[in-house]
Amino acid sequence: DYTDPHCSGKQAIVHLFEWKFSDIANECERYLGKKGFCGVQTSPVNEYTVITKEYIRPWWERYQPVSYKIASRSGNEVEFKNMVDRCKNVGVRIYVDVVINHMAGLGRTGKGTGGSSFDSSNYDFPGVPFSRQHFNDKDKCPSHDGMVNNYGDPNNVRNCFLVGLTDLDQKQEYVRNKIAGFFNHLIDLGVAGFRVDAAKHMWPGDILAIQKLTKNLPEGGTPFFYHEVIDQNDGAIKVNEYYPNGLVTEFRFCQKIAQGARNFGELGGVYDPGWGMADSDHAFVFVDNHDNQRGHGGGGNRVTHKTPRDYKIAVAFMLANDYGFPRIMSSYYFGDDSSQGPPHNSDYSIKDVTIENNGLCGNGWVCEHRWNPIGNMVAFRNAVTGTTKVHWKDQNDQVSFARGNKGFFAMAKQGHMDETLQTGLPAGEYCDLITDCKKKITVDGSGNAHIVIDNSEEPILAFIVGGPS
Ligand code: LM2
Ligand code: CA
Questions:
Q1: Which is it for strands 354-355 and 361-362: parallel, antiparallel or unpaired?
Q2: Which residue's alpha carbon is nearest to atom 11 within ligand 1?
């Protein structure tokens, strides 16, 4: 079952974008385990290009592989293994972002982050090794210049070069085995699954063949796979082609939740089957990702940490809602420069993530996942597993609903709410997750409660059966 994240039924992961392995391990131990996170998505961990020409150390250098050695700005294999073990010990799994559609871009040459030499223009990657014969060529790619330039044609999207990146031919047994060998190595080191980069640019059957060459986890079961397929009703490739392979990223959710956060009247329709959106059991959902938060990868007009109030509303709603498997984005601050890499020291090593007295991060790290309406809603998502939305109410810029008889959630766009509402929950005293229990809610014998929201920066309230008191 490629859709099983292997985290004891927990329901949300966080992408610690560009974090060092040592910091991820610290975060598992000091925060993620206690808060009930299922796991962490890392940035690509295998050897890649060191870019210093047109730009110095952009984040996207990681998307130009040089070999499958574990050697990245986040750390080496020893540090990786240490992270996986320390996280697993506190119930948090690791999912690796794997870049297998391509190797480095044409024209790039030199040494990768692990010291392997390479020369893309000659298709020479001795660290694997891959050579010319392992890449797609003009016979298979129908575009005149060999580049992906027609999203209406699957042969063009999948057999041509994406922004000049040397495109591997996953039809070949040799190529499949090299990639599966990389996955198997990661499984031996204890990971629980993979985010497959640029899955849209590979044939689903080829990816499935690689998945079949991949071993089961030591504790049993196939690894978790979620496939990056950007389907915004704008091309020939559809998310449902990838259902046999696991979950699929649902980028239309990013569009819908952005509209909903700005206009609560649209929140009822964030899952729109009429739009072709993946069903809940196949959808992998997120408010923004590392690409579209900076205008890459089908981006534009997404809600991000740059508008914190709307962002908290959007992510809290995603976690309270009953659609898909959610990923929380955790970013570093950046300005107008969409290439800017992570916070770094003068030698370009990545800066430590520091934790301030208020529990938020320093040194340039945003740590959205530590914002109360985000981090504390993970417990809500876990507590309401298996229930559906009931008692939905949507009027005057206010939305509220229950999840079965397990949890109740409310938000007020204007920042204030003062209503008596049916919660569907057993009578009792509950406390609000968003304010860390500073606010109490009493549910009476008929399930009604007086709901007050009065914090205009975080105009959200949530409580669960079995929650803190
Ligand atoms: C992805 N998903 O399908 C990643 O989420 C996305 O971040 C990757 O693009 C992309 N696919 C390829 O893995 C990023 C970034 C691009 C960047 C590539 C490769 O968005 O801008 O392209 O990584 O590093 C860069 C340059 C581009 C150049 C290319 C090849 O920006 O101008 O094209 O390298 O040298 C000539
Ligand atoms: Ca391809």
A1: antiparallel
A2: 198
pLDDT, position 300: 78
d(CA 22, CA 40) in angstroms, rounded, equals 13
List b or e across 137-161, with b for residues whose CB sees 16 or more CB atoms inside 10 angstroms.
eeeebebeebbbeeeebbebbbbbb
Q: What is the pLDDT of residue 305?
A: 98
Best CA proximity match to 111, nearest among 76, 71, 79, 80: 71
> Cβ distance 71 to 79 under 8 Å?
no
What is the strand order of the sheet 460-464 is part of?
389-395, 398-403, 407-412, 460-464
Q: What is the pLDDT of residue 371?
A: 98
ipTM score here?
A: 0.97
Indicate if 228 belongs to the active site.
Answer: yes
- Give the pLDDT confidence score for residue 138 in this predicted structure: 87
Q: Which atom of ligand 1 is nearest to the CA of 201?
A: 3
Q: Choose which residue among 49, 121, 161, 165 to substitute to test ligand 1 binding: the one with the highest number of ligand atoms within 8 A of its C-beta.
A: 165
**Of all residues in the chain, what percent are helix, strand and coil, respectively (each to 5)?**
30, 25, 45
pTM over 0.95: yes
Q: How far apart are CA 93 and CA 81, in angstroms?
A: 12
Spatial distance between the Cα atoms of 460 and 434, rounded to a whole number of angstroms:
7
User: Helix or strand or coil: residue 422?
Assistant: strand
User: How many Å lie between the centroid of ligand 1 and the Cα of residue 165?
Assistant: 8
pLDDT of residue 208: 98
Burial of 307 (0-12, 13-18, 19+ CB in 10 A): middle
Dig out the tokens for 435 from the structure.
């304010």
Contact 153, 142 (CB under 8 A): yes
Residues with CB under 6 A from ligand 1: 60, 63-64, 99, 105, 162-165, 197-198, 228, 291, 296-297
Q: Give the per-residue pLDDT at 456.
A: 84
Distance of alpha carbon 205 from alpha carbon 186, whole angstroms: 22
Below-50 pLDDT ranges, the chain: none
Specify the pLDDT at position 256: 98
